[in-house]
Amino acid sequence: xxxxxxxxxxxxxxxxTNVRKKGFDGAEFNDLxxxxxxxxxxxxxxxxxxSKSKHAAAYxxxxxxxVVAGERRxxxxxxxxxxxxxAMVRDLTDGEAKEVQIIENLQxxxxxxxxxxxxxxxxxxxxxxxxxxxxxxxxxxxxxxxQRLFLTNLIxxxxxxxxxxDITDGHAVLIAKLxxxxxxxxxxxxxxxxxLPSVKEFKEWIERTFYHPLAFQPWLKDKEANEAxxxxxxxxxxxxxxxxxxxxxxxxxxxxxxxxxxxxIEYQIAKAKEQGIEMLKVSKEYSSDSSGILSASKYQSxxxxxxxxxxxxxxxIVAAGPDTGTFLWICVNPKCTKHYSQHADYSLSPKEKExxxxxxxxxxxxxxNEEEKIVEALNxxxxxxxxxxLDIIFEMILQGQGTTVLRPVAKRFGITPEKKTNxxxxxxxxxxxxxxxxxxxxxxxKKLRFIxxxxxxxxxxxxxxxxxxx
Length: 470
Known about the structure:
With 470 residues, this protein is an alpha/beta fold.
């Protein structure tokens, strides 16, 4: 039944399942009250019929209505003192009503990205939607939906900081991809500085803190695992490097580390199989690009505490993306009543697969073309360096640096930053523009000293070791 009619407000009750918890006070709500007082309710609310007794329900007698969508208009009408309100009456189950509420909530202009992500997650886990379905329904890209889903992984501290505007969308997405413990470390890093690092600088910090080859090598603590992954090929494990002293069997090269990590994962799966345990490979990301790896959309992550697990709990190992090589307990059984009961199918359509294949081919051609240009540029360099070549190197060095690297170097050269304000009204200090201006007055020797100063700052924790070489 879809029926438009005017209904007595006394017969309507609020919904207990409305996903919107804010917006029922403040200046905007007061404006809505004033508008309804002057013009009435122009846009009908959506309600569903209810029955107050089993006897009434048995004879299909409607004794009341529940607000499904338009609760702000309903509350404002109550305050104004209206006796009736225009409404669209629809027969909806509890699940259908919840779905309508979520979809309407997503149409709000003031919805926070975090609330948006939780709404998408509810559609996936409770209403059997896929990312593709949601993207079509709300008119957004699948990448946009996945990014919002990432945000639902935020723990309380970064989530609160995000809601307050203390961190940006970019910072929040990067934090959401980390494990719970690493999220806490990331927030501590963001609070240490006297200004919020740029997203680019924050990403670089995350990569060198959590994803560097030296950061996580679990096989070093397990003799059998160390033998299973084998010796290093691309890196030299027994020599001192700019990264400091290297332990026996440790990697200093990302390619070597990835190869060892793949062997480590296969070793753990085989070891579990010998014990009669099926260990699944998973990713913490909402995607399905990797064959044989369950994406975050296809399982529910469980606590390691036995009381929080279920009879379907399975052990898994992260085989792609953030936290690769770590273990999880997961539930993938759709019949489990303790955890999320629905798990959507996120498989790519043939059209999307073909599009990604073409895109990958295009990117490969671009990389090969870029490689040829790099070789050509290197062959043009003459020694000793002339001013033009030095200016190019100076610009290359400057482009890839964050504030933590540029600030101390610039201060040593007597360069002061410019205070600016971005589009979100955040104040920050710009170092690049003053450095470029100062570079115009530098001779070749001073410019080269500045370049070396930046390189020294980039050695991070191994700076002292490098300084001893001079």
